[in-house]
Amino acid sequence: MSVVIGKNKCSCSRIVSKTFNELSLKELYEILKARVDIFVVEQQCAYPEIDGIDYSAIHYQMLDSNGNLLAYLRIYPDSDKENTWHIGRVITTVRKQGFGQKLLHQAVEDLFNQHHADEIILEVQTYAIPFYQKEGFKVTSEPFDDAGIMHVNMSLKKGLRD
């Protein structure tokens, strides 16, 4: 299912989605390194970053013209609710360039149009709420502590985007 989804406004980058088994060892290493660098080291949060979900996820990468990772996220189906998907582990390695927003937008479009999602759910750090609200997500829970960092649940239902 490896798909080059297209180039964004910056002609030097492209978005690619791959299943776990389609990732090269270098891609997997770069993804896991970036996730650990941000979620464990930078945020000083010791938790099991490698959680087993990667095997069933589709991994979205925004890459520069040299193949360097600019942004990443993963999508995976909810195990309990039909036509409900999760987006998680959203990161950018180059900040303040809009790469994360472009990657999130592409994933949302693909979930609704290709994967026939009725709802997309997230668990996000509270500081990042405005980032997801730009794509139409709504807060659906009170703040809660997850590994020492405050989070909320958010949701976006098909047909209800702003």
Could you explain how this protein is built, in words?
The chain has 162 residues and is α+β, with helices and mostly antiparallel strands. Helices cover 23% and strands 36% of the residues. It has helices at 25-42, 99-113, 129-133; strands spanning 3-7, 13-19, 58-64, 69-77, 84-92, 119-125, 138-139, 144-146, 149-157.
Structural classification:
alpha+beta
CA(first)-CA(last) distance: 30 Å
Q: Tally of extended strands? A: 9
Could you tell me the radius of gyration in angstroms? 15 Å
State mean pLDDT (0 to 100 scale). Answer: 87
- Estimate what percentage of residues fall within beta strands: 35-45%
The total count of helices amounts to 3
Give the overall shape, derived from the CA principal axes. globular
Largest sheet: 9 strands, mixed
Q: What is the H/E order? A: EEHEEEHEHEEE
Helix content: 10-25%
Show unreliable segments: 1-11
